[in-house]
Amino acid sequence: MAKKTTKKKTTSKAKPKTKAKSNVKAKIKRPSFKLSNQQKLIFGSFLIIIGVLLFISFLSFVFTGKEDQSVLSNFPERTDQYKNWASQLGAWVSEFFITKGFGLPSFIFAGLLFLSGVYVTLNLNKVKLRKHWIWGTLIVIWLSILFGFFTHKYDVLGGTIGFEMNQFFQDYSGKAGTILLLLFGLIAYLAIRFKVTGDTIVNSFKRAKKSIKEDLQAENTTNEPVVTFDNSLTDEAEAIKSAFEIPLENKEPTISNHSKPNPKKEVVAEELTMEVTEKPKEETVDTPELTMEVDTVEEEKSESDNLADKLVEDFGHFDPTLELGKYQFPTLDLLKKYHNEGISIDQEELEENKNRIVETLSNYKIGITSIKATIGPTVTLYEIVPDAGIRISKIKNLEDDIALSLAALGIRIIAPIPGKGTIGIEVPNKNSTIVSMRSVIASQKFQKSDMQLPIAFGKTISNETFVVDLAKMPHMLMAGATGQGKSVGLNAVLTSLLYKKHPAEVKFVLVDPKKVELTLFNKIERHYLAKLPDSEDAIITDNTKVINTLNSLCIEMDNRYEMLKNAFCRNIAEYNAKFKARKLNPNDGHAFLPYIVLVVDEFADLIMTAGKEVETPIARLAQLARAIGIHLIIATQRPSVNVITGIIKANFPARIAFRVTSKIDSRTILDGSGADQLIGRGDMLYTQGNELIRIQCAFVDTPEVEKITEFIGSQKAYPDAHLLPEYVGEEGGTNLDIDISDRDKLFRDAAELIVTAQQGSASLLQRKLKLGYNRAGRIIDQLEAAGIVGNFEGSKARQVLVPDLASLDQLLDNE
Ligand SMILES: Nc1ncnc2c1ncn2[C@@H]1O[C@H](COP(=O)(O)OP(=O)(O)OP(=O)(O)O)[C@@H](O)[C@H]1O
What family name appears in the similarity comment (predicted)? Predict the structure, then answer.
């Protein structure tokens, strides 16, 4: 039975692989046809000339086409004499377009070509040009059918296409049907292109009717003052005019002076009506013109929306990848294929394990009603349904006995399997297979995922590719004893992101105290890495420098929150979508925000050398950074409680455990046992708060990572790595005799802020007073000179020496 199910699975997996492969290739190649300005001029003028030539040929064909018919069949004979002004070619092209094509409407094509030339030469909006072509072609077809309606044979009026299409329509719907179809086409065109609505038509009829009425009235009552209104007044004006008829008549003395139609007075009257259009609404409430007003109100848009729409219409959506427009994603063939990939079924082994499980359980008087096996890359899951009335805890307690009888390491009992109502016994396969990075990257699940930061970790026990979104996690803790696959796991995470995200969309901050694990990523520094402005290497190997980077990330986080607040967005996805739709002005400090992924390898080492100082910024980032696109991945060999403290654990819901040596370590990382029963070599447990999922991590070797980074590194890059905000913590306050008169204008504000917050940090000033790095640093020096803050204490905030605002006032007044 087991054989059947697994066979099915393996064959069904084979197909998507190849499909996905082509899918990747399609994604990877992104051709772009960008012309330089000179090329645009050449191409544009070429199009203009072709347009003019076509026009001349067509025009001449109308007069000379018949005469050239006799020689057309000899084309391209050089000796023949053509009457067409553009000779052979002109006659031939015109014959093709006009007689064999769309008839006289083909002139529009000449116009479109000419227009295209102008657009290309002057570098005008391509979206509009596309619209012209679409509408132009539709008009050509419509006119061609219309002209074809009036002809009874192929001729120049509607061309062959017009005539044939007409015949086609007439055969099916008769003459009346064809006319109605054409009429429908016209109406649809007017409605879509010129936004004509039922109301507009009704109103224009009414307007025409009124103006005729007015004309008649004007003739009958030439002596009345009211007739000074112009006939071309709008409906609204008419309504208001009637509303004001009485007051105007009452002001007889002034109006009677101008009883004769006077052009100046007409203007005055018109202006008067224009000004009061809104006010007399109530008087005109029963007039049909009101519907027009409602229409305009409906279509009204806010100014910024209009501007954004216009910008999008003119330039399209903002494309953050444009700066590296020719960037090519790494190809699949950079990743290795392994010979021992794919699941092989050992029927004997399956049968043997089944018998042993049944036997062991029956020794303890546990009967089984059914047993089912699911073969994964490293372990096989035996799902059993025990007889009714058997307590689950009884089976769970037999874990060691079953392990003993199967003589295998890494047996894990899941009792019960959540949502299934069965009990699972995971038994390692004798021959485990490698899950290659290539197979998970090529999987449809990964390729088609629309996650923000998709990570293909490996394959689950049922051999499905396991893909998760780092943006949703939103931070990840990874632990495992040495040599169990942590570094490979980190590489799998980074590789997944490199295969899916453009350099403009994601940046990595890499901390590698071991100095060797992540060095390969140096090659992609200017594509994908982020660093502090003054640092030389993007990958941080010195633990003391990590604190600056972490604090800088905190500043970046605060800055991003400020930007999100100003843009009225709740998270980075909304913000970036708004920015792409050109609704946020870069001049107001807005910019496209890439995701930032902070990877810390050997976190225990970091805590040991840099002490608790790293814990605060890490905890801050973990608590707050999820919405603004900063995600943390922290890996450690020793998951002891003094490394993974409560505050860190609480903020890292997603945990990954490779094999650990003790149950206690497993409990620290997973809040339960299990990680101690894994078999190592990439065998891992993943949890995001609820159930544990056993996964075989995808294997990506160092040469593969090297090939990928070389592939990316050899392409055009940004001028520098992505720069993080400067962090001033390291700057020492030395200049203690700063002149009082030289103090910064914001000195007092800064002093009050620092005393109120009781925190002597320059980054606080930067944030709250919106200062640059240098100015905030100078103010801190001045505060130190004034005795308000203490000495520079490394990366810690300075001590504040003044307890409250009253003391501060006293101190400054005494100076
Ligand atoms: N997913 C995997 N599939 C197959 N083999 C693996 C996998 N992950 C790791 N291994 C094997 O385990 C070895 C050690 O892995 P890795 O270097 O990732 O361990 P580590 O946990 O980072 O160790 P350390 O903490 O000492 O750096 C690898 O060289 C490889 O042979």
Answer: Belongs to the FtsK/SpoIIIE/SftA family.
